[in-house]
Amino acid sequence: MDTRTAWSVPGYTEVRELGSGGSGRVVLAVHAATGTAVAVKYLSDRLREDPAFVGEFRAEARLLGGLESPYVVRLYEYVEAPGGAAIVMELVDGISLRALLRQSGQADAEAALVVLKGSLLGLAAAHRAGVVHRDYKPENVLVAADGSSKLVDFGIAANRGSTPGVAGTPAYMAPEQWQGRPASPAADVYAATATFFECLTGRKPYDGENFAELAVQHIEAPVPETEAPEPVRPLIRRGLAKAPEQRPENAEAFVAELEDVALAAYGPDWEERGQRKLAALAALLPLLFPSAGGPAAGTTAAATTTLGGGAGWAPGRRGWLAAGIALVLGAVLVMTTDAIGASPGGASALSAFATTSAAPPGSASPSPGPSVPASPSAVPSASASPSPSPSASASPSASASASPTPTSSPTATLTGKPTPTPTPTPTPTPTPPVKVTAVDVALRTSVYRGEASITVSATGTGPVTVTVQWFLGGSQGAYTVPDGSESFTVQAGSTVTTTRQHTFTRDRGCYGGVRVTTKPAAGNKSAADSQYLARCVEAPR
After folding, report:
1. Which residues are catalytic?
2. What was the pLDDT predicted at 95?
């Protein structure tokens, strides 16, 4: 069905359609003032007539308004007017993990760990904001040309602890999701582990032939950890535990366990090797990258689920009870999928193209980051997934970017927070010059790695240069050995929080430190923090 409408987001010029489905369409557009390419997701006319669907579309933006992470796709604008509703997003030049698995069958353990870590860091940002993704799967993990990965599609995300009903993709749903229990980060950890298992083995953890069998297997079948390489079995065992309390409590905790296992099993260079291997796999599919500029990709509204062969395992008494429950839940999932032409529980088929993040009403106008004209490839879902999803598209890069000023809609505009990426040519305005009122930093460390959360508050208008210096030392607060530095730019006029990561040099001190300064200088001059590095053994003196 052609869901084109005459209405388009003011201030953007449509270039071509990138994908379409029962929920609407995604187009490549260019911001008229700056020439920045963006992806615009339009809600279809049919769904726009239903206030409930409009509310979900709007909630997708509001729910993720606080997320500022290089592992989550950024939203620039949410625009709602009498003529339509649309989400304006950045683009990324990447392909879905599903496409890679279809090509290669499975991935090397180091490559699979890199995919898992990148997308888990995206989940961690959501979990810190109190958001549960609820639909982690290979279709919703992007791999860029350099082998980096990130998580997309928060179309059915929910607030932690809420009970929005049964939703997700059956092959990756945690036991508590099948039971309709409150949304929790532990359910996302389960789905991420199921995807990790599929990367390692080329098959899903459970392969029931229908909803009832899948529900029973996820709820009570043994964890198939022995099918995975021995060094990573602890991650499979923990992540696929039946009870939520037996899993890592959130994605951040799971990343810490992952790094410990990976370091012990594959050495300090595991991540670099894994990323190179991923890049090599991605290079085999050049035509699937958005930058290839292929034709528009369609999406499919699937109302039924086709599942693989049985696993040769019979359920116990609890399993038969779960099977009865699953028959009812399966019908709900099917009807929901048929209603919106997308993933169950209200996820737009278009959401898989690019996930969104937005700020609550009243926040400052966004500045789109670097983007690549894109055309997503259609990626049919796996056999145990009720709905196919096209590959996502958005850019995790923190490099320099153009900064369009989105035009307001006739009715309402919900804009994203200013991005922490540099803006080369800010538009002169009669407002006061830039003044940095404060800069703060908090450092989290793991195995020779540090993640600094940096907050800059500035008034007026103009660029603020932020310099991050990394240090090593032999005691808390000792910034004695320089270990690298970096700089980036943010725009004044708001408070911006961003995250920077660093791998510290070994054997030069057991405490990692970070110092942040700004130009112009902040009111509090600078901010610094240092923390102990896990598994550190200080070099003998």
Report:
1. 135
2. 85
